[in-house]
Structures are given as C-alpha cells and as structure tokens.
Amino acid sequence: MNVKLRVLSIGAMFFAAQNLSAQKDTAKVQNIEEVVVVAYGTQKKSTLTGANVQVGAKQIEERPISNALQALDGAGAGIQIAAGSGQPGDGPSIRIRGAGSFLASNSPLIVVDGIPFPGDLNSINPNDIESLNVLKDAASTSLYGSSAANGVILVTTKRGKKNSSKVTLNTSTGIISRFVQEYDRVGPADYYGLTWESMRNGRLLVAGQTLATANAYASANLISGNLKTNVYNVPDNQLVVDGVFNPNAQLKYNDFDWASALMGVGLRQDHNVSFSGGSDKSTFFSSLNYLKEEGYLLKSDFERIGLRLNADSQVKSWLKLGTSLNGTITSGSNAVDGVANNAAFNNPFRWTRGMGPIYSPYQHDPVTGARLYDLDGNVLYDAGAFRGPDGASGRNVVWETLLNDNTTNTYNLQGNVYAEMKLLPELTFKTNAAYNFRGTLNKTYTNIEIGDAIGIGSASRTAYFRRDFTWNQILTYNNSFGNHNFTALAGHENIDYKYDYLYGYKRNQVLEDLFEFDNFVDNSSLSSSYNRRSKEGWFGRVNYDFNEKYLLEGSIRWDGSSRFAPDVRWQSFWSAGAGWVISKENFLSNVKAINFLKLRGSYGEVGNDALDSWYAYKSLYSLGYNNGTEPGTILTKVSDPIVSWETKAQSDVALEFELFNRRIKGTLEYYNSETKDLLFPTKKQLNAGIPGNQIETNVGDLVNKGYEITISADVIKNEKLKWNVTAFGSSYKNEVTRLDEAFINGSKRIAEGQDLYAFYLRTWAGVDPADGQGLFVLDPTKSVLNATDERTVNGQLVTTNQNKALLEYQGTAIPDFFGNVATTLNWSNWELSAAVNYQFGGLIYDTNYASLMTAYPQGGGLHTDILERWTTPGQITNVPVLNTAYIAGPSAASSRWLVDASYVMLRNASLGYNFNKDIIKNVGVNSLKLFVSGENLWMTSKRKGLEPYQSFNGTTSNRYSPARIITFGLSTTF
Questions:
Q1: Could you report the per-residue pLDDT of 788-804, keeping only the tens digit for each?
Q2: What is the total count of domains within the chain?
C-alpha cells in the first residue's frame, strides 16, 4: 500500500507585533515578526525549514495583468515562466525548479484560500489577492502529497480588518501593442530576384541546361509558372532578365503588409472598487471588478466581470465562522495561433510572417493598381490570386478573420465556508467545505465565402462543465513550555471532480448572418462525455523549536487517487526538515554585522498523479465508429493495469542571512530532486494490436539538481530616499538516470544519461565553397562507396543528402543561468520600480526562422539573411545556393536552426506619485496615487523576431506574440 504526503503553505503575509523590553531591543531582534501562511496554518518566517517565494499585494495591484500568475514572472529564484499565448486573458506556463515529468503534468498545484483550485486563475481578480506564495521543496509541499511534485502556489485573497472601514478604488486605462517585432524579410524587388535565381539554378545545376536557356526559362516562367502576381509596371518576362531586376520597374501598389491589416493598437480598461472593514467580532471584504482587454490582433479580446465577498465572524468565544465567495463571467474572441494550430491556413501569425512581399490582401486594378471596392464602397479582398505561405491559393487570412467567429464565454463560481472551534486554549478544530463550478461555452463559425467551409459554411458548439467539491477537517494543537514551542496538526481531506463535455458541429448554412444550429442543414458531428475522479488524504505535521533557535519539522500524508487501480491506489508521502538559527548563538552575539543567520535543510517525497487520463489504469474504447446502422467501437488506448504514481524525492539545503542592520538580505540554496517511476511510452510489437504500438508505464527515473541565489540590498535608506536592489539567479541540470529504451520525441531523443530537452538533430556542416551545396556531417554507417552525394570538405567527411546525415546530441534548451534583477526607488512622494529578466545559455530551435530561409514553396516570405546565399565559387557563407530542385536537404531539421536562447528583457516598470495626506484629507480622501505602468517594454536577443522564452522545450511556433501594455492609473482610499 502506497501513501503520499503533501504540505500546503498559503501565501498570505501577516505581521505580528512583538512586545520587546528595552533590554531585548538589539539589532538581532526585529520589532515586526513576519508571519507566512503555510499548509493548513501560519508560521513565523524565521522558523521555516522549507523554501518559498512570496509576492505581496503591492507587487500585484499596479501591474497591468489579467492573470495573477503573471505576477510570478521574475518573482524569485527557481521560477521559470513561458509566456504561452499572447491572447488577451491567457496566463503563462510555470515551472518550479525544472521539469520533473515527461508524460504527467509539470504544472504546480494552485491552492486558493486553503483549497486546491483546478480552475483558471483568470477567473480571480488580481486586485483581490493579498499574496502569492510559491512553495518549492518537499518540506513546504509534502502535506499536499500526490499533487505537490511540481511545487505549490498558494493564493490568499484579501480579508477585512477589525474595527475599521475602507473603500478602495483602483482604475487604469492603457494601450496594448505588439512587443516582439517580426523577423527581417526581403522586399518585393529582392523577392522577385531571389525567386528568379532559384528557378534559374534549378534548370542550370540540375536539369543541365545552358546558362542562356536557364535564364530565359526563369524570366518567362517567373510570374505565369510560379509567383502568379506581378506588382510592377513592366511585362512579366521583363521583370528580371539575366538575373538583373529591371531598373525601370515601378510598383503599381504597395499594400503588402498583412500585419498592418490585422494588427494595431488595442485598449485596456481595468476598474476595481472594494469595501472592507469590520467590528470587534466580524470583518468583511467585498469587491467589484471590470476588465476589458482588446488585443492588438483583429478580433481578439477578453472581458471579465467579477464579484467577491469574504466574511469572518466570531459568533462565540469558541466559534468562528467564515466564507469566501467569488463569481466571474468572462467572454472573449479567440484568434487562431500556434498554441491551437501552428500550421492552420487561417493562423494570422503564420500568414503575416510567411507571406511573400508581393501579395496584397486586397483586389487591385491590374493596369492602374488602384484598390477595388464594391458598389457599397466596401473594399474587395483578394480571394486567391496569390499563392501564400504554402504555395497554395484560395485563402485570405484578413478576410477570413473578419468573417469567421471564435468566441468563448465562461461562468465561474467558487464558494468556501469554514467553521473554526476552540476546543481548548491550545486545541483548535477547523473544517472547510468548498465548491468550484466552471461552465464554458465555445462557439465557432466558419464562413461561406472563403476558406475551410467555402460554399457551405459551418458552426460548432463546445460546452464544458466542471464541478469540484472539497471537504477537509483539521485539528491543530499549539503550545509552549518555557523555551520549547510545539505545534501538531492532523487532518483529512476529500476532493471530488466531475467533468461534462458536449460538442456539436453542423454544416450547410441557409441564411446569412445567422449562426445558430437551426440555420445549418447537415448534422455532421455530435458527441459527449462524462468523467469523474476523486482523491482522499490523511495528513499530519509536527513542528518543534527550542527558543526559535533549533528547528524541527516532520510531515506525512497518506493519499489515495481513483486514477489508479485499487492495489496501487494509496501511497504515503512525507518530509522532514531542520533548521539552526546560528545568529542566536552566544558566539555570534558580538558580531554586529550579522543580524540573522539560519542554516536549514529538508528531505521528503511528494507525488504526481496528474496524468493525461482520468482512468490511467484502464484501457479505453471510443464509440461512434459505425458502419451504416451497425454500431462500432474501437480500442483507443491500452493501459498498464499497475501504472502508479510518479514519486519525487527532494533534498534541499540553504543558508539565509541578514547583514548590516538588515540592509543586505539573501539566501544561498542547493537542491536535488529525483523523480522515480517516471511514466514513459513503452513500444510494443506491431502485431500486438495496441493503438500507437505503445503503452504508458512506470519505467524511468529523472534527476534535477541546481542552485539558487537571492540577494537584496537597501543601497540607500534614509527618511527622504530609499533605494533597494534585489537579484535572483538560478541554474539547474536535468538528467534521465533510468530508461530501458530510448525514443525520439520531435527534435529530442529521450535517453538514459541525457536531459529531457536535449536536441537530437542532424549536424549541419555549412556550405561547400566550391558549389554552394548545403552540407551535413556524414554518418559513417550510411556511407556508400563512390556515392556522388558524399565528399570531403576541409578534411571532414560530409554529405549533401540529409538522409545520410549524422544524428547526434546538439545541446539543450535548458539555460545555463536565469533570473531577475529588480529595483525600487522612493524619493519624497515618488515611487519608481523596474524589473529585468535575463537568461544566459540554452538553445532554441527557431522553426519560424527556418521557414523563411528557403525559396520554396514559392509564395512564402524570405528572411533578409537569405541575401547572403552562395552565388560564386570560393564564397564563404552559411546560406546554400538557391535551387528549386534542391530544397529538402538545406531545409531539413538540423543544428542549422538552433540559436542561442540568451536574452535580457525589461519585464515591467512603473512610476507613481503619492499626494500628501495633508492636502487630500480635506476632501475626505485617505490616500491618492497616480501611476504609469508598463509590461514587456524592451528586449534584446540573438535574433530580431525571436521569442527565446516562448516555450520550455526550446521550440518556436506561429503563436500569438506577447503584448506590450502601458497603462495610466489612479489608486485611492476613503
């Protein structure tokens, strides 16, 4: 029987005043003791034995973010952020201390007000959040057991304060624009010339024609046989002659910028009002939020209306009751991007990037070049005169974007009630019951005029309904005996998840501008599903310290998950931590420079049951594969009946310090994390009748080890001027330590001794100066005697045949070092803050760049680097000769497309002014602040257009590029 332990720390930050006598008022003692929320309770930060990162309300409120997870970007050491999609309302992907799994989730557990939260944090208003706390090691996370392998993010929402009342208004308005600019691409004249050259070389070098014949062929067929469009005022066959672009040619029109037709500047509005307060027995916090984000891309937006009520009441001296209620309605229009469909014909980023610079979205008079309009004065879109990024006609992403619809409406309700009973002065019982509902309706319409549903039109509806119920009961004992401080906790938790799915698709539209199902004739598809799973856990924790100098902590959790078979359903998870506050020792009492010094360490095991199936141990079948009226069922997945948990064993050691009257603070930390029984796909024989010829089973181990450093310094600290600089840095290594059989995963090869993100590609050997052919290092096992595609260049055996190229490891996507530098400056009434993210080392496979470095298919855009292509014998370059008959080789996946993923980015900055209270109090205002804030303000990387932080696995796609947001706002309290 297996048991797993998980510990939860909730990220609210509180302050408890200490009554200190004058005799104890030394530099070693803080007048304010920082207290953080931990798993199912609170604890002084100085007595923690685990690793955590905290982000307070002030760091969240003034940033123009729609998802609270965005506030963790650059928040602390060991936290990596991949921006994900730039769709308005979308949140980032987060990794804490690297990837610990291949098939299971690598995302951290999110806990809101003490309750595990499986929803989307864009349903919670960031202005309602008191703090975020990221738990990184087993000592901090083990009470969450089977959900804690990837770390835990604790979200604590705001609550009212006793005997006070306050009204807070935060409002801001700003603009949204594209942050990362496009790759540099050639203009029309160069484009015609390069395409002509590629066609000529195809005839000259491969077909064996004479130079004159090949030149004549390219000139005669450049337009009619290839590009189909001539935007200059000269005859088609005179546009490029003998490789020279006609100097007399003039453009008839020049509206070739598809990006300007699709992208611009969006508006952002964020308005929040909250009411908080209370009496000596009851407190409340309530808020109302409205957010509207218009993306810089046409027909992409996000809107949220939210309402929250948190209330607490001491109804009896021994009984406290409380509730947290949150409801939001979100709606948005979604663009097709690389996250949803990288290669879709109507992906606007693929089109704007990959469209040749001679094609316009609009129709033009073939003689004068004037743009054409219909009788009502509406512009006419070109429905296929161009060839497009794929060399195909019949598409127009601008027109399709205007005509198609893809909208999502989501309804969220989270409710949590608790009762806390004081059974004895030292003994408290608390029970929490929480319900989370999320209903989502996605509507799509594909137009009848152009594109996938041309001539018929189609519509779809997808509905998701998720309901989660959590109930826990916690008994806490807290007592002190002289210098001995003791806390014990025991609890039980049950979580039930239910998920409904409904999908419908119909075709053949009847009436225009009516997109409901009744307006479509053919019922093409209808499906539904229902899933349910549950988890149950028993847990406990013991904390002991002697005079807050010697610290001990132990936790255990016994978890059961319905994902697994009954025989392997339960497993225990545990942790142990210890700490030594060295600064309290007598031998340091006279060392005035050291205010606080603590050595801590921990070890524990946590788990991961977040697999891709709710029924991991069961084989699955799909219905609906019918033959006429005869029902049909097929086997879609064969499972291992004893598949079980992935278990992560974590060790952590750290030194925390505060020096020189606490002007300098920091942490030095080392960790080692080993994931055992890792799930990997195991190949089976073709005749086994197994879908995909593989089964997912526990066959591997994985290690992450690394170090982290945090330094914070008050460079200047006086009554008029305060300047703080804080820097984080992290580095880690990843290695598969056990795997029976290696396998290819895209551009990676997962194998024992390698990391999960190690690129395994053909080795590019450059360009042969003699003839401009692209070269690869030859795999000796594939060499053939006297083969014409093999040669020796500069003493190295190479080949022009990509199928004979040597495949080998080329490096990893994991950076050598990454982190953040943040600064705050306070002078008089002014506040200035800025944060810079950085990453050094690591590789990224730039698929987008690769697509721009080949002159085929004709119609696609070309990067300006292609101007460095080989043209003359003896020329030294890394860009091969252009040749329509030799495309596959140079464009094949290889180390040629790897680029250094280093970057430095100004992630955010803000400037604020606080009005003097003496001035504003006369109008009944307690505080008033004006501010300007920005996100994604500047970046430098190895290549313009590259987004080095786009994904953790080091690949790029045609996704919605992140936005730059600049807002102006006001914050006031009454």
A1: 999 999 999 999 999 99
A2: 1
